[in-house]
């Protein structure tokens, strides 16, 4: 039998209009935005692939749940519903709600890290590492080498290299390592999963040295899908069972619910240890809000509880990752260099190979993101040297191996037709890459510079030369 087509497992009840613009209008917009896609107005964007964070379309059930919001300052019933959902699907004992993921990262960093500590992780994430550094910790990358190679086809590029972890323990001693930060479906590596075998092995190694393991569970459901598809022994298990098993090896998690959990805002810290939870519950009132809302409205917590249950449905997650694969395969077939294998939440263009005429200090990924916007109104994001920032000790630019442009697919928002339009624009630029001009920084903020940095083309011309 021939392979049948598939379609998104939802239909559209309400539409949000998109504004079409011309290339010359977009050339003005990108200049006004300092060639930083974060500084564009969303009204000037056609297809918004900046991020999968908080950009989800909620379901009718979630919108109905919003009406059940109990906006009591203390003890909202929505908190208890969310606590039940986190216990059921993630399996952790204590829930400390936060306004989003970085709120949870702040709490965990403050309660666990002492000045001079080393915090290992499987590749850095921008906000996670900054909170560790602000608490006096030093991030140490213990991800496997394959993760730094955009061409490696290794299926579990999120894996921790056990030898790197052991070497760190031998070098600094376990008492200088407050925890391992274990990210699922590693964002900066291209949405690449960890295998269950690796999660189990690394947790055993850490626990043998009394080092707790805290998951960054932001995209753990997507990781569970890859384990089901790729790892021996998991094909017959449900996504919910695999998610529980991932979490069962670890001691808690930070969570940006704006991704997997299908909501527009929210997050949490979940912990098994009673003492640590007590500390976090005390700290949350300083930074987020009372421990039964943590910066969220009651209705947000209710929508999240429903979203968590929807997130582990197989039809949902297969279509979510299927849409990413659909776009990725179109680009691969046209010879466009992207991170392989195709990851869970987006397609990552390898800007270094896409624009070989641009040196790293002209920020090829930043330039490509700006040029793509001018070409078609598709908004993407730089994930390379600008995102990596500067070394806090030396002040020098950090140049990671990966110089990427991320086309991030929001959940349940776009159709395959939007993916077609996106692919056509990328392929069009790829056919004539010399049109894209390098950039230099004209303004740089102190923290997380990629959000607010401004640039101008080195050549003094437009970032995308006319054909
Ligand atoms: N951890 C990971 C792996 C993330 O991808 C993010 C956010 C966070 C933590 C922080 O969560 O935004 O809710 O405070 N990632 C977004 C992105 C911003 O576009 O990749 P937050």
Set out the fold topology.
Blueprint: H1 23-32, E1 47-48, H2 60-66, H3 77-89, E2 94-98, H4 101-112, E3 118-121, H5 126-134, E4 138-141, H6 162-172, E5 180-183, H7 196-208, E6 213-216, H8 220-230, H9 239-248, E7 252-256, E8 267-271, H10 274-287, H11 298-311, H12 314-333, E9 346-350, H13 351-354, H14 364-376, E10 378-379, E11 381-383, H15 385-388, E12 404-408, H16 416-431, E13 439-443, E14 454-457
Helix pairs in contact: 1-14, 2-11, 3-11, 4-5, 4-10, 8-9, 12-16, 14-16
The structure holds ligand F0G.
Ligand F0G binds next to helix 4 and helix 5.
What does this entry look like structurally?
By secondary structure, this protein is α/β, with parallel strands linked by helices. The protein has two domains: 23-52 and 314-457, Aspartate Aminotransferase, domain 1; 60-311, Aspartate Aminotransferase, domain 2. Helices cover 39% and strands 12% of the residues. The strands form five sheets. Strands 2-8-7-6-5 form a five-stranded mixed β-sheet, sandwiched between helices. The protein has a three-stranded antiparallel β-sheet with strand order 9-12-11. The longest helix is centred in the C-terminal third of the chain and has 20 residues, at 314-333. It starts with 22 loop residues before the first helix and ends in a 10-residue tail after the last strand. It binds ligand F0G. Ligand F0G is lined by residues 51, 53, 100-102, 125, 127-128, 183, 187, 216, 218, 256, 258, 267.
């Amino acid at each position: 039998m021939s392979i049948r087509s598939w379609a998104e497992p939802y239909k559209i009840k309400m539409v949000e209009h998109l504004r079409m613009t011309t290339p010359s209008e977009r050339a003005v917009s990108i200049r006004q935005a300092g060639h930083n896609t974060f500084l564009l107005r969303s009204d000037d964007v056609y297809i918004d692939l900046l991020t999968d964070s908080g950009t989800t379309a909620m379901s009718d059930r979630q919108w109905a749940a919003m009406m059940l919001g109990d906006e009591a300052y203390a003890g909202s019933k929505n908190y208890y519903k969310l606590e039940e959902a986190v216990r059921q699907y993630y399996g952790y004992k204590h829930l400390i709600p936060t306004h989003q993921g970085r709120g949870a990262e702040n709490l965990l960093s403050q309660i666990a890290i002492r000045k001079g500590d080393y915090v290992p992780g499987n590749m850095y994430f921008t906000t996670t590492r900054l909170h560790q550094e602000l608490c006096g910790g030093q991030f140490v990358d213990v991800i496997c080498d394959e993760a730094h190679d955009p061409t490696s086809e290794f299926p579990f590029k999120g894996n921790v290299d056990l030898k790197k972890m052991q070497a760190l323990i031998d070098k600094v001693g376990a008492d200088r390592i407050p925890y391992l930060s274990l990210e699922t479906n590693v964002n900066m590596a291209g949405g690449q999963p960890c295998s269950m075998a690796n999660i189990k092995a690394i947790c055993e190694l850490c626990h043998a040295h009394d080092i707790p393991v805290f998951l960054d569970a932001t995209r753990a459901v997507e990781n569970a899908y890859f384990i089901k598809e790729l790892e021996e022994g998991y094909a017959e298990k449900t996504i919910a069972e695999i998610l529980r098993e991932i979490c069962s090896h670890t001691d808690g998690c930070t969570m940006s619910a704006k991704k997997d959990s299908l909501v527009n805002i929210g997050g949490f810290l979940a912990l098994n240890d009673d003492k640590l939870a007590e500390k976090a519950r005390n700290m949350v009132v300083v930074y987020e809000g009372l421990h039964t809302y943590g910066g969220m409205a009651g209705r947000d917590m209710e929508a999240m509880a429903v979203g968590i249950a929807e997130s582990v449905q197989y039809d949902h997650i297969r279509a979510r990752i299927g849409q990413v694969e659909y776009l990725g395969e179109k680009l691969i077939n046209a010879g466009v260099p992207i991170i392989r294998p195709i990851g869970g939440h987006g397609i990552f263009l390898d800007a270094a190979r896409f624009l070989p005429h641009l040196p790293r200090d002209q920020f090829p990924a930043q330039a490509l993101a700006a040029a793509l916007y001018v070409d078609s109104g598709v908004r993407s994001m730089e994930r390379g040297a600008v995102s990596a920032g500067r070394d806090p000790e030396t002040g020098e630019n950090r140049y990671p191996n990966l110089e990427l442009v991320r086309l991030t697919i929001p959940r349940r928002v776009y159709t395959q037709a939007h993916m077609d339009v996106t692919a056509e624009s990328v392929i069009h630029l790829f056919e004539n890459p010399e049109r894209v001009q390098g950039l230099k920084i004209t303004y740089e903020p102190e923290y997380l510079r990629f959000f607010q940095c401004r640039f101008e083309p080195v050549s003094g011309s437009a970032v995308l030369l006319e054909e």
